[in-house]
Every structure is written in structure tokens, then in C-alpha cells.
């Protein structure tokens, strides 16, 4: 763990993370900053830490990794004095699932600086802890209605890891982000890596969207065989959908817009009835050009200059 050890500190004692059969833990990584539509990444990491037995084992030096002026932390002011500081953090917790199996959870803000040093540190730590697989989390807003099932796109270093999931078809270039870079670096160092990018209705992307959190937690469970709690998330997703439906039912303009989106979405899906190699159920998929164009439009907005790399 010597390489770039100035970027983090280990918090002792570090628990034994291997299972009874000697398998190493899964690493789940969800870093906020590049794209967190519906606050899905934050929602997943908070849910996993708060609902299970979690122990902090690695703390990264955010002073070396975060540009405070680009994402200013909040200070709490109380009447006549400053009373608190929302200190940024990047941490790894050792977490036990509901059956007692250990896994690692990397969470916090996406680093602004020293990407190579940070990803190399995580890869080194993964090797030292015997990580057998890494799973990354993403969330983007798309033109999908909240009244249809929440979907996610899968990607992996080995197609067998995401067999049964739907992948982005085609090839295109996107702005870099630490989560995707970490997924790449893991696979380059022989650690199987996968990731899931959940689709959030664009008109709900600025608020917490429980259905997206539930989708990501379910995806983690399926690919990792971890037993993760979802009862509270299922209830939250049902309640949220009911609240949204109640609100739009009193607004004919919004209701009409959602109904039109449903129609376009259904027609779009029905027009793409082909079966993807990762999707043996034969569910409809959009074309690579259509998804790529939609994806690049969103990522161009995230880059801050309104253009993609190709443009």
C-alpha cells in the first residue's frame, strides 16, 4: 500500500474481509460530483452505510483531492456566529450485508485533482484487501417517464458479469470521470469491474428519486450476490410515485406532457424490438446512435462548455 500513501490513512483495526470460503470482498464505489441525477449515487451509499453494519477503514486526504472553490462546502451560521462546517469526505467503509458477508464501500465526492494518484491508491488498496470484483455507480437524466419501469445501463470488463442486463450499444466518446476511470483501471490490473448507470426522468433529476436508488441496489445485489436490504427503498419509491401522480393530476398541462412522453417512450421501445446479446429476454432497445446522441447531449452540459469532445 506504499504507492501514493500520502493520499489516505488506514484506520486500525482493519477487519478480516474474506469470506469463510476464502473469497475476497466486493468493492462498491459511488462518487458524487460528475453526475448524480436524482441523487441516486448519494442515496445508495447513504442507504448501504446507514442500514448495515459499517466500519470506516480508509480516509482520503481531501485537501489534496478537492478544489474547494469549485464546490464550496457549506458553513452553518446561527444568529451571531458560525456553528458548523460541512466538511467534504472521501472514505472507504467495510460493510456487512444482511447475511454477514463483508464488502467495501467507497463513497464521497469525486476528486478534482490527482486522478491518477487517487485511482492507483484505490487499486492498491483493493489488491491489499483481496477485492474480487468492483462495481461502480452512475446516474443520468433521460427523457423517460416516471410511470414506466426504472432501467439502468450496464458495462463491464467481462460481458459475463452483466449477462442479463442491458448495455449501451455502439461506440462514442464521453468526458472523463473518476468513477469510469476507476472501472477501467481495475480491469487493467486484473480485477473484474462492472458498473451501472441508472436512467432518471429528466424532470425529476434535481430531486431525490428513490426508484433510481432501488434500481442500483438491486443491480449490485444481482451481480455481486450480496444480500442488501431494499424494503425501505421499495416503500419510498411507491410513496414518491404516488406523490408525483397526485401533484400532476391537478395540473392538466403537466399531465398532458407526461402522457405524451409515455406515448413517445412506448412507441420508441416498440420500434426497437430487437434482442441484445446481454438481454436474452428480448426487451426492446434503442439504437446506439440514438442513445449515444442523448448521452452526449447530457455529458456536454456536464462539461460546462456546451460541447462534446468530438464537437
What does this structure look like?
With 311 residues, the chain is an alpha/beta fold. It has one domain: Rossmann fold (3-Layer(aba) Sandwich), CATH 3.40.50. The chain is built from eight helices and ten strands. The protein has an eight-stranded mixed sheet, with helices on both faces. The chain has a two-stranded antiparallel sheet with strand order 4-5. Helix 1 (40-51) packs across helix 5 and helix 5 (210-224) runs antiparallel to helix 6 (231-249). It is globular. 34% of the residues are buried.
Topology (SSEs and partners):
Layout: E1 8-10, E2 26-32, H1 40-51, E3 53-60, H2 62-65, E4 75-78, E5 81-85, E6 90-96, E7 102-109, H3 115-128, E8 133-142, E9 152-156, H4 178-188, E10 193-201, H5 210-224, H6 231-249, H7 252-270, H8 288-303
Parallel strand pairs: 2-7, 2-8, 8-10
Antiparallel strand pairs: 1-3, 3-6, 4-5, 6-7, 9-10
Helix pairs in contact: 1-5, 3-4, 5-6
Summarize the structure.
Keywords: Proteasome. The chain has 311 residues and is of the alpha/beta class. The chain has helices spanning 40-51, 62-65, 115-128, 178-188, 210-224, 231-249, 252-270, 288-303; strands at residues 8-10, 26-32, 53-60, 75-78, 81-85, 90-96, 102-109, 133-142, 152-156, 193-201.
Amino acid at each position: 500500500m506504499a504507492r501514493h500513501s500520502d493520499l489516505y490513512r488506514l484506520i486500525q483495526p482493519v477487519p478480516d474481509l474474506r469470506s469463510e470460503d476464502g473469497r475476497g470482498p466486493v468493492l462498491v464505489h459511488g462518487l458524487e460530483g460528475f453526475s448524480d441525477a436524482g441523487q441516486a449515487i448519494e442515496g445508495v451509499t447513504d442507504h448501504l452505510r446507514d442500514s448495515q453494519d459499517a466500519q470506516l477503514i480508509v480516509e482520503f486526504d481531501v485537501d489534496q483531492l478537492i478544489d474547494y472553490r469549485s464546490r464550496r462546502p457549506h458553513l452553518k451560521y446561527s444568529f451571531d456566529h458560525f456553528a458548523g462546517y460541512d466538511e467534504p469526505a472521501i472514505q472507504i467503509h467495510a460493510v456487512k450485508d444482511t447475511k454477514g458477508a463483508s464488502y467495501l464501500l467507497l463513497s464521497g465526492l469525486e476528486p478534482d485533482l490527482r486522478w491518477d494518484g487517487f485511482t492507483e491508491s484505490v487499486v492498491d488498496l483493493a489488491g491489499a484487501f483481496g477485492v474480487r470484483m468492483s462495481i461502480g455507480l452512475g446516474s443520468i437524466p433521460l427523457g423517460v417517464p416516471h410511470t414506466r419501469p426504472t432501467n439502468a445501463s450496464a458495462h463491464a470488463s467481462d460481458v459475463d458479469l452483466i449477462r442479463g442486463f442491458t448495455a449501451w450499444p455502439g461506440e462514442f466518446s464521453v468526458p472523463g470521470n473518476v468513477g469510469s476511470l476507476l472501472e477501467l483501471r481495475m480491469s487493467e490490473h486484473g480485477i473484474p469491474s462492472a458498473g451501472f448507470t441508472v436512467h432518471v426522468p429528466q424532470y425529476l433529476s434535481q430531486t431525490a428519486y428513490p426508484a433510481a436508488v432501488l434500481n442500483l441496489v438491486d443491480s449490485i445485489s444481482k451481480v455481486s450476490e450480496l444480500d442488501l436490504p431494499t424494503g425501505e427503498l421499495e416503500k419510498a419509491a411507491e410513496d414518491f410515485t404516488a406523490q408525483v401522480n397526485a401533484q400532476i393530476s391537478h395540473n392538466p398541462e403537466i399531465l398532458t406532457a407526461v402522457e405524451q412522453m409515455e406515448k413517445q417512450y412506448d412507441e420508441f421501445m416498440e420500434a426497437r424490438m430487437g434482442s441484445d446479446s446481454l438481454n436474452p429476454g428480448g426487451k426492446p432497445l434503442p439504437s446506439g446512435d440514438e442513445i449515444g446522441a442523448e448521452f452526449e447531449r447530457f455529458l456536454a452540459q456536464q462539461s460546462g462548455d456546451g460541447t462534446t469532445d468530438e464537437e
